[in-house]
Amino acid sequence: MTSENQKPVEHPLAPLSKAVVVGASSGIGEAIARKLAKEGYQVALLARRTERLVKVAEEINGLAGEPLAFFYEHDVRDFDQIKPIFQTVLKEFKTIDLLVYNSGIMNSVGISEFDAAKDHEMIDVNLKGAISWLSEAAVLFEQMGKGKIVGISSVAGDRGRVANPGYNTSKAGFSTYLEALRNRLSRKGIHVLTVKPGYVDTDLLPADLGPFPAAAPEKIAKDVWRAIKRRKQVIYTPWWWRYILLIVEHIPSFVFRRMSF
Amino acid sequence: MADYPLPNERLFRLENFGHSISRPGFLYRPTHPEQVSELFELANKNDLKIALRGAGRSYGDAALNGGGLVIDFQRMNRILDWNPETGVITIEPGVTIEQLWRYTLEDGWWSPVTPGTMAPTIGGCLGANVHGKNNWKTGTIGEHVLSFDAVLPNGKKITCTPKKNKQLFYGIISGMGLLGVFTSITLQLKRVYSGNLTVRAWAEPNLNRVLSATDEEKHNDYIVAWIDATAGGRGLGRGQMHSANYLKEGEDREYNHSLYSPNQDVPDTIMGLVPKSVVHKFMRLAFNNLAMRGVNSAKYWMNRTIGNHKTYLQSLVAFTYLLDYVPNWELGYGRGGLIQYQSFLPKETAEDTYREMLKLCKRRRIPSYLGVVKRHREDNFLFSHAVDGFSMALDFKVTNRNRKRLIKLTSELDQIVLAGGGKFYFAKDSSITAEVVRAYLGEKTVKSFLKLKEEVDPQGILQSDLYQRCFGE
Known about the structure:
Chain A has 261 residues and is of the alpha/beta class. Helix content of chain A is 45%, strand content 15%. Chain A is built from 8 helices and 7 strands; from the N terminus they run E-H-E-H-E-H-E-H-E-H-E-H-E-H-H. In chain B, strand 15 (269-270) and strand 16 form a beta hairpin.
């Protein structure tokens, strides 16, 4: 399940920073993992698809010239497994300084399709998995009096649209959860960052983007890293999505109801 | 006592004594030996690692286990048997040095070996096999153990004496909690006829004089030197000596008063005014290179002039537990905390080596704010740190600015110590690597330790952070 690589011996006075990226096999998660490794983090990569994780880990380690990336096969819907896996990573990494929750799915639903099973699945992955992972991290970070939590939510959580109610709900829930977590934890010295990407060139990218270009995952990772360093609370990425959403949020309901957007 | 996954309510931030290293750990505080066995079983079943922790007074990472289990013995602190006629006491490992002397001093018994603070547990003291300011005379604390019971990680319970289970006796004592857990310890204490010592203080102008005085004054019961590690040039290694002797039978006519434990308590205010508990906050202001140079110089010149060649009576506690004189003094080092670098050098090479080390610290602009020199002799324990020679302990402030340079400095010092045939001490160390450990302990010792560990701990569950650093691949 885990990689066999020997962890480097660290000096007690200068331990490496340690990050966990949940949902790291592709897209934004993979890009963030690469970025963190580049910045000197030791990273735990978690996802369902082991073959891809192995590849990502190998590439990171090859580039770094030392074993920085370690992988753990995990499906976030196995809620019972989250605590033991968290404890396994904690034990092997000795501590955790940063947790990125990136796992997310978007089931395609028709405009008049109401499939509760599809929606439940999105809630499980995008929200319930997140709550389970972030809860573990919150307990640890609160004890340590430091730590960073990064939640990859979405602009889709800012408004409920006709296209995908389940997805919107999962992301709205996640954004709200992150905000509440921030209010609880910032007074304990913990940084909680909400990331709201627009369209990104990943597996989740819908077929119809409208007039908006899709950003590269590397661009998102770069923005996220900068936001971590600057202790931002909420970021839209690329930046101009903030203004798109500002407009979208202010479209009155009687108009929004009639839009196919 | 516990299930896997481990409950979040057991998760705590744990630190070294110097507050320079912090790691999360699942902390268990058993009250009975059976609970220790249960935790061993849990660890064996779930591939968990355990570090043992007493009062958390190790300077390095000996009692830390990042992300793993930590067993804290402070609640296993019962005194099981006491014979005031013979001075033989049987205790649980969580009994502290303070608890011990408060219990036995009234009957005229004192720990024959004791470190500079009364906070540690006896279990911790034995794990590190600590010494005192009388190491060359009475050896380490392990030499005063008559027997102990232990639980091994493989589940076995054994009794060890210097004759029975000899290898484990000399291994578990000094073994840094990597071979087994003490469940009861029987110690032979030392008869004292007064709660006071005759102490003599005098100054010595340089390292050569400090070392020779430490050697020449070996006939005393205790001998220790404070050195001003900030001084350079001709005054390099200058310092103040303290020798102390027990009073003989009949010398203290009011022995019943001086042996009464409340009379040993040092005042908790300075000049009856400033509470000592706040002193560390003011110390912070002075803990920088410039001010510490002034403080050290002032202390030296005071000792050289008005305090020179004074003989006086001092209570056992005030003399022995100097580190407890200002509570929480280590917090004076600020947010980054401190580390101590203690090295043990044979008497032939000590002077040259220490001179080189002190010079290097000055050259690197990381002077030690406190230096202490003691006289030692060899012992038979597995992880023996003592040599027939001297030790010098240097306290260094850790800051984010000096962190990298300090790490480099300590690794340079390691090489100087090794070149002088020196040794290190796990109770204090927070920086040596596995290579340095092999070099100073010798391949043979490391091999016999690993073999012993394989026997008693086949799954390797006793693994502190120190173990992984010093004995990892």
